[in-house]
Specification:
The protein is an alpha/beta fold and about 600 residues long. Helix 1 runs antiparallel to helix 2 (about 40-55), helix 1 (about 5-30) crosses helix 4 (about 100-130) and helix 15 crosses helix 20 (about 585-595). The protein is elongated and about 120 Å long. About 40% of the residues are buried.
Amino acid sequence: MTHRQRISLFIIVDSCIVLSAIYFGMSLLSSSTPQLNISMLIGSLAILLSHHLFSIKYKLYKKHWEYTSIQELLIILKIVTYSILTAILVHYIFIQELSWKLFVVAGLLHLFFIGGSRLVWRIYRDTILNKSENKIRTLIVGAGSAGTMVARQLLKKNEGSLRAVAFIDDSPKKQHLDILGLPVVGGVNQIESIVEKYKIEHIIISIPSLSRKELNTIFQECAKTKAKTQALPHLEDLITGKISINEFRDVQVKDLLGRDQVEMDMESISDYISNKIVLVTGAGGSIGSEISRQVANFKPAQLILLGHGENSIYSIEMELRDVYHGSEMEFITEIADIQDAKKMLYIMHKYKPDVVYHAAAHKHVPLMERNPEEAVKNNIIGTRNVAEAASKNNVGIFVMISTDKAVNPTSVMGASKRLAEMIVQAMDRQSNTKFAAVRFGNVLGSRGSVIPLFKKQIKNGGPVTVTHPEMVRYFMTIPEASRLVIQAGALANGGEIFVLDMGDPIKIIDLAKNLIKLSGYSLDDIEIKYTGIRPGEKLYEELLQENEVHNNQVYPKIYVGKPTNIYINEIDEIITIFEDIDSDALRERLLNVANNVVMKELQAVSI
């Protein structure tokens, strides 16, 4: 229907409604059939014309009646009131008499018929038409302003596939009430029984301000059901208009970490990055590339992307050039191996960076167990090469990325990273450069993490392989890990090992179950298979050794470990002999030094 046709239809319908209201009003006040006379004709024409004039003035005919609200009803009340008052004035001027009862009754019927016609149309669209369609029964978690908006969207969105059935809310004041005709049927802890009772197929978590811990609690209740679970976009996305209230998103694994992310001190970071020369090693990796993205936000003068793999470096370079097209920022790529000491010296001398983020490393535990000499060459010798080159060229700040596996290590990878930490701390004691290390746990979505593996296994129909039912790990997201590294640079005075308060560790089995659920399957669809702990793995990880623990936070959710013994002589010995001994002997030597066993043995002999 065109706009003109729509207005014409409204004028015809409203004319019939107004005249009917006058006729029924006269019928109610008279025992006989109303007779047309000059008084009735003038009154009727006055009300009718006034109604249309005020309807045009207040744009009544432009309202979309699928979205009827109190505001529209108030406009109708104004139009009817002004129409009756105008008709009274006209009638008095021409007839010199008034029938108050007639105008009052006709006005009430006028209001009832006009308002009722709009309301009946909306009720018809929201109930009759909606119920006639085969829609998915949906439960809305959260009966606040956001939940109400979601319900309103679903009730009016006839072309959609979801049908709102009920609300869930923990507020006792809202329970047992109806909101927009939908009952508030219970709290979060009743979700499982409510889904079964109301035959719910879809759940929408409609509280955009939820913390991760709160979202995780609600999702765990939803996961007990077979209903698909989605959530509103994040609050900042709604506020900025990036996403609308009816664009629901799937709950993601990162939402279930059970804690809020660390926020950055933008001012202090800007002070040491903006307009400076920044070099990132391993810039093509999952962590290195994210560090590069976040560093670019602070507009350094030059951002040097160093990596061994040409494809990954090319990819991050093209991405940054596209995002910052037209910026004065200069992106420089260097294809180089950190095991090449001369090349590291050359690059540091050529660019004279102010800040270095050292993200290049071998991180895969089982692979390093089988190739311990590669862990020595890359993680230990490579780190020493980059650190010495940075020190000789007076780099201001050097931040190395470490791992929680460096604490009481049982693996070659963890031991090599612990020795790399010692190299960095030793360099800090003899250099003008501020050296620091950052430890964090497993990174969701990084290369080598369990998430890509689980997703691939789920896509293939299972089974999902978990090493042990009691295996637990600390987890964080790639952006969060990168923020921690960048923030550490602003906090570093030299020699520190920074760690993140990562909340409670997460069971790998729970992560697998959640990912299966988030992928739209049930545990009956995808089998979980236990494969046994792999060489070098522990059931749990730690972020600090007992003698490193320092209870005071240096920044919200960031701690710094106390200095510990550094065994540079033992590290130099490993570097000297690692090519001449077999893998088992090298593995044992790495673990001994990393766990201070050598020093304890020397102390015992001297006593």
